[in-house]
Amino acid sequence: MTRREAARGLLVWMAGSPLAGAQQELAAPTERLPSIEDLVSVFEFEPVAKAKILRSSYDYVAGGVEDEWTLRRNREMFGRLTLRPRFLRDTSKLDLGMELFGTRLEAPILLSPTGNLGLLHQEGELATARGAGAAKTILTVSSAASNPLEKIAAAATGPLWFQLYAAADLDGTRERVERAVAAGCRAVCFTVDSQYGPRRERPLRDRSSRAETPAGARARQPGGRGSVSELPERYRLRPSLAAKLTWAFLDELKAWAKVPVLIKGILTAEDARLCVERGAAGIIVSNHGARRLDHTPSTIEVLPEIVDAAEGKIPVLIDGGFRRGTDILKALALGAKAVMVGRPAVWGLGAYGAAGVQRVIELLQTELARAMGLAGCASLASINRSVVRMER
Predict the structure, then answer these.
(1) Res 230 pLDDT > 50
(2) How far is CA 347 from CA 26, 160, 335, 361, in A?
């Protein structure tokens, strides 16, 4: 594909996008992709990334499971929360700073773990780590990273956390944890919603996109792994080690890690209370970006009950559909300590590499600061549930 064809395809996509109705009228079309300075919101990074990467890579990141009902709900539920601004308050000096497990951050915005970032950019997690460091935030490195953890740590210019998937056995799981801690990761986020592999249907429907990948090329060879005839086999129910683990495993995990252990994937007050009782350092409210079980609630709608269940004893973080500073303000008002951002940073990476990651985070930081000031909140401590109203 030539640059001219890519630009034309981008403009066609943007014209048909539902985002077009929510944006100002597009400027006159040009025969080039926009520069990073031309983009004014994180939404605009997605079409640029889509134009630059393989369709299969785009579908891998953008899609959810099955009907993608939860994927849509993650965004829709922000529309049911309205802000209640208060006026004649001194907001001339805004303070977004916070401390999280001994790390000082300029804003309550972190990067969620995302695997296989090499699909989006040749440097993958290395560029993401540099972008996160430049934005002065934390990158959570996935167990499914494209690059070795030690190489990511060497490239990082800011603090790292580690996201843990249980390995094939306990010894392998322990090795992952110990490697992460040795590499300098300051916390471990144990993902609990990975008992079985997900069924993501976008790649199954789009066989041509699978053919673009190295795996697709192997599948076309006689006996190649992952051929169309073998697809049903790939989705038979095969429980992972995570399907056998219980809350008792948390004691073992904490002994291995010797750094704060957060539980990622909590969606109910019952499990939130168990996190507190079992000694987790924190909770991450997450539905895995709608990439595991469909027809679960959005994270923002269950956040209040989980915050209430935690009773302030451990911090509650959240991810799932955050695209605006106002989205982040709503989560903070409902009791979240911080927000973790996934796909927007990935679009930034695919569009412009490390600079794109940095720009996405800085846009969200700026939007959050502006929303706080206009809502009458000069600091994070001044944000509470009176700032929002949930429409039923």
Answers:
(1) no
(2) 20, 20, 28, 11
For 290-333, what is each residue's pLDDT tens digit?
999 999 999 999 999 999 999 999 999 999 999 999 999 999 99
Look at residues 103, 162, 94 and name the one whose alpha carbon lies nearest to residue 137: 103
Does the pLDDT value for residue 15 go beyond 80?
A: no
CA distance 380 to 369: 10
pLDDT for residue 226 is more than 70:
no
What are the sequence ranges of the domains in the chain? 3-199+235-390
C-alpha 253 chain-centroid distance: 23
Distances from the Cα of 200 to the Cαs of 61, 132, 205, 293, 323, in angstroms? 11, 28, 10, 10, 23
Report phi then psi at 171, rounded to 5: -65, -40
Which option is the CATH number for 3-199+235-390: 3.40.630.30, 3.40.309.10, 3.40.1190.20, 3.20.20.70? 3.20.20.70
CB distance 332 to 108 below 8 Å: yes
Residues assigned a catalytic role: 288
